[in-house]
Design goal:
- The chain has eleven helices and eleven strands.
- By secondary structure, it is α/β, with parallel strands linked by helices.
- The protein has two domains: 3-114, no CATH class; 125-252, 3-Layer(aba) Sandwich (Rossmann fold).
- Strands 8-7-9-10-11 form a five-stranded parallel sheet. A four-stranded mixed sheet has the order 3-4-6-5, with helices on both faces.
- Helix 4 (61-73) packs across helix 5 and helix 6 (136-148) packs parallel to helix 11 (240-252).
- The longest helix has 13 residues, at 61-73.
Length: 253
């Protein structure tokens, strides 16, 4: 439950459209709801401007579905990352049978989303750039997350430094973005190159793509941390979700 939903509820009480007892029932799960195996932080969006998100990896399909349904009932948008199709089917099974399915599965991004309320819109475009097609799962996770959070997002795919002319052909789109998320594996050079072309914040995402000496993304991570472009910051390996959250906060300023 975010600020807009609470303000709407209080206005309904003030105007007599909702009884006080009903409003109390809807607010009783703040700041969190204890469902035994999880404690759902419905209050997070009010505190931080971003709702709690379900990290599905390591959870059972039934657990993900139960958490998803409880968060949906609270009225906000819902996102589950690192989800499988089995988890999506479990979520879908708990949706009301007399309604059109609302949850969506984003296969490349490995995410499940439910959009119920308009998010605070961003002020500009977030460009999500990825070096190669193998980086797309991480890039798509960033795209899905950023869009659910109210941003206009442009995906620029397969523009790695091995064929730098492909990147330079996207110069206009890069330079018009307010924030950029750049995903790359191997040696992780792409964010530095992009950072040298734009006057906007660049959030670098090392991916675990690469041969043995890439050490599962550590080589890309270290390369990005050693960037000589001062407008580049770095998140953890494969963390497209985290990059999108930071980009969304920047895009609201």
């Amino acid at each position: 439950m975010d600020r807009a939903l609470i303000e709407a509820l209080l206005n309904d009480v003030h105007e007599g459209r909702v009884a006080v007892n009903d409003a109390v029932d809807r607010l009783k799960d703040l700041p969190f709801e204890d469902i035994g195996f999880a404690k759902l932080d419905h209050h997070r969006a009010l505190r931080t401007g971003m709702p709690e998100v379900i990290f599905a990896s390591g959870k059972t399909a039934a657990q993900v579905a139960t958490i998803f349904a409880r968060m949906a009932k609270a009225g906000g948008n819902v996102l589950a990352t690192r989800a499988t199709r089995e988890m999506f089917e479990a979520v879908h099974a708990l949706e009301p049978s007399n309604q059109e399915p609302r949850a969506k599965f984003h296969e490349t991004a490995r995410a499940i989303t439910l959009t119920q309320t308009p998010a605070t819109p961003g002020k500009g475009t977030i460009a999500v750039v990825c070096a190669g097609t193998s980086d797309l799962p991480v890039a798509e996770e960033a795209v899905v997350t950023a869009r659910l959070m109210g941003n206009t997002v442009e995906l620029i795919a397969d523009v790695g430094v091995a064929g730098i002319h492909r990147l330079l052909a996207q110069k206009q789109g890069l330079q018009s973005a307010r924030v950029l998320i750049v995903c790359a594996g191997m040696e992780g050079a792409l964010p530095t190159v992009v950072g040298g072309l734009v006057n906007a914040p660049v959030i670098a995402v090392p991916t675990s793509v690469g041969y043995g000496a890439s050490f599962g993304g550590i080589a890309a991570l270290l390369g990005m941390l050693n960037t000589c472009s001062p407008n580049v910051s770095v998140v953890n390996i494969d963390n497209g979700f985290g990059a999108a959250c930071i980009a969304s906060l920047i895009n609201r300023l």
